[in-house]
């Protein structure tokens, strides 16, 4: 039998691209689960997160898979509903930081001069403070609440994207196609938006994907110390704070703790896969 007919008769095998590693697929499944929990929490939560579900401080059992808290509320239901607060605030903070930081970095890198220097000195001043301490100071001055915590995190995060975008713009603006656009008489706005910025977004996208997990962690930290979500909001950091009060009832903090862990790892795995896709050399 000819070799070609043997090859034709052999079943086709589905091959995933090299960048779609098992870790990337696991991260995608985890993030998809939390997205479903964010959009349709009542599908997954067996009880109302704010109402009494049973006796207080019940250990995990068949009726309450993650037990109940000090007020008799179902920990599993509160953990699932907590995604409605943690994921949207992470997305809002990262998008806001990307928009503000990228605009500032693009102006600084393209225009330079006094304006560029002033922007970068502001970036340097902001980055000189530890992120958690700066976020705590801003959130404390604004008062508790998820909205104020989001503002505090944007203040912390935008300089990272400003510095990253500036470095990309400084590199791309020296390329030949940009020089050709300048020689053709294109305006500054067109050069920046059509010839420079489209080539600068890959590192921003990868960094933003990984930062989603870090923002979730920082938001939980602010809520843990009382500068984020306020009771009775089922937010992951606030739930862990409640669990710390009842140390031997470990299940109160176990659910939100695992939620934070899986969400952060999921976004990090996806970010690694995107990095390998856009820059295959990074995986070697």
TrEMBL record:
Membrane-spanning parts: 23-44, 89-110, 146-165, 199-227, 247-271
The UniProt entry, under Pfam families, shows: BPD_transp_1
Q: List where in the cell it is found.
A: Cell membrane
Q: Which residues form the ABC transmembrane type-1 domain?
A: 83-271
Q: Does the keyword Protein transport apply?
A: yes
Membrane topology value: Multi-pass membrane protein
GO CC list? plasma membrane
Q: Its principal location?
A: membrane
Sorted UniProt keywords: Cell membrane, Membrane, Peptide transport, Protein transport, Transmembrane, Transmembrane helix, Transport
Is Protein transport set as a keyword in this record? yes
Query: Which biological process, per GO, is one annotated for this protein?
Result: peptide transport
PANTHER family linked to this entry: D,D-DIPEPTIDE TRANSPORT SYSTEM PERMEASE PROTEIN DDPC-RELATED, OLIGOPEPTIDE TRANSPORT SYSTEM PERMEASE PROTEIN APPC
- Protein family (similarity comment): Belongs to the binding-protein-dependent transport system permease family.
The name of this protein is Dipeptide transporter membrane component of ABC superfamily
Source species: Mesorhizobium plurifarium
